[in-house]
Design a protein that fits this description.
- The chain is about 80% helix and about 0% strand.
- The longest helix has 27 residues.
C-alpha cells in the first residue's frame, strides 16, 4: 500500500466531500416532494464516507500500474463532476442543471469503472458500489425534479 498516493486521492475526495458540508440540503430540500424510496438522511454520510475511501484506494492501486493514464484521467473527470453536483443542486437549487451534471457524473463513473477493471480487478470492484450509488442518486435527482416542477430550473 502506497500511503502517500492513497492520502493524495483521499484528500481529493475530501475536497469533493467539503461541498456537502458547505451546501447542506436544509429546509429547502426537506420541503420538496420526494419519492417513497428516497434513502434516509443518515445513510448519505455513511455511504459517501465509504465510497470516498473505496475511490481513493482504487485510484491508489491504479496509479501504481504503468500506462494507466486514461483510467486516472477518467477518475479525475468523475471527481470533478462529483464536486460540482452538490453546489448546483443544493447551493444554486438548480435541479435541471444538476441533472445535466449527474449525467456527466454517471457517465464518467461508468467509464472509470470500466477502465479500472481493465487495469486492476480490485479497483474495478471497488468502483461498483459507487456506480450503483450514483445510479440511485441520478434516479433520485430526476424524480425530485419531476415531482417539483415549480422548482425545475
Amino acid at each position: 500500500m502506497d500511503w502517500g498516493l492513497f492520502l493524495t486521492f483521499l484528500t481529493t475526495c475530501g475536497a469533493a466531500a467539503a461541498t456537502g458540508a458547505m451546501f447542506q440540503p436544509g429546509e429547502w430540500y426537506a420541503a420538496l416532494k420526494k419519492p417513497s424510496w428516497t434513502p434516509p438522511n443518515w445513510l448519505f454520510p455513511v455511504a459517501w464516507t465509504t465510497l470516498y475511501l473505496f475511490m481513493a484506494f482504487a485510484a491508489m492501486r491504479v496509479a501504481q500500474v504503468p500506462d494507466a493514464g486514461q483510467a486516472l484521467a477518467f477518475w479525475g473527470l468523475q471527481i470533478a463532476f462529483n464536486t460540482l453536483w452538490t453546489p448546483v443542486f443544493f447551493g444554486l437549487r438548480r435541479m435541471r442543471a444538476a441533472m445535466i451534471v449527474m449525467v456527466g457524473l454517471w457517465l464518467s463513473v461508468a467509464l472509470t469503472t470500466v477502465a479500472f477493471f481493465q487495469v486492476d480487478l480490485v479497483a474495478g470492484l471497488l468502483f461498483l458500489p459507487y456506480l450503483a450509488w450514483v445510479t440511485v442518486a441520478g434516479a433520485l435527482n430526476f424524480s425530485v425534479l419531476r415531482l417539483n416542477t415549480s422548482y425545475s430550473t
